Amino acid sequence: MTVQQLVAEPMKIHGYDAHTQRERAEEMLYKVGLKPEHLTRFPHEFSGGQRQRISIARALSVRPEFVLCDEPLSALDVSVQAQVVNILQDLQQELGLTYLFIAHDLSMVRHISSRIGVMYLGKLVEVAPAGELYQRPAHPYTQALLASVPVADPRIQQLDRRWLKGRNPQPNGGAERLPFLQPLPRR
């Protein structure tokens, strides 16, 4: 499929006419920093960052209010990640979008999120405003997760590390289903 076909596919499914599909595809490519002449090219002709921009254009072609971003920055180098984050933030402001990010990159999560949920074994164990979660994590898993983030200064790295002890939890196991059975501090 060409970029034109990829970006237009959601619009086709939603019943947009061919003229609108072409017009909107050009508009969305422009919004993500690509040119209309890219419409006739194929995805393998683009870098990873450009392919991610094409995916963003495709997702936004039908003008959603809510966008689920599953690991939107994985496999991209740091400079390209920053560009993609900037594009997503600009589009959020311009189009009034709400994003739900699924990510393992805690520095990116902190930078781009206003509210964060932490999952453990498929369950949501903590939800808080981003600043509060990073300053005062309540759940032991959140505390351990944040303590595991690498720190550039080795002196700081040794401070305040929380390591989880005990056996690895089993998602379908008996007592292991409650690995953090202890009272949590109130916020």
TrEMBL record:
- TM stretches of this protein: none
Q: Which residues form the Oligopeptide/dipeptide ABC transporter C-terminal domain?
A: 125-168
Report the PANTHER family cross-referenced here: D,D-DIPEPTIDE TRANSPORT ATP-BINDING PROTEIN DDPF-RELATED (PTHR43776:SF7), TRANSPORT ATP-BINDING PROTEIN (PTHR43776)
Which Enzyme Commission number(s) are listed?
3.6.3.-
Q: Where is the ABC transporter domain?
A: 14-73
Question: A Pfam family in this protein?
Answer: oligo_HPY
- Which portions of the sequence form the region Disordered? 164-187
Tell me which UniProt keywords the record has, alphabetically.
ATP-binding, Hydrolase, Nucleotide-binding, Transport
Q: Which family does it belong to?
A: Belongs to the ABC transporter superfamily.
Cited InterPro entries: ABC_transp_ATP-bind, ABC_transporter-like_ATP-bd, ABC_transporter-like_CS, Oligopep_ABC_C, P-loop_NTPase
Protein's name in the database: Glutathione import ATP-binding protein GsiA
Single biological process term from Gene Ontology: peptide transport
Q: Which GO molecular-function terms appear in the entry?
A: ATP binding; ATP hydrolysis activity
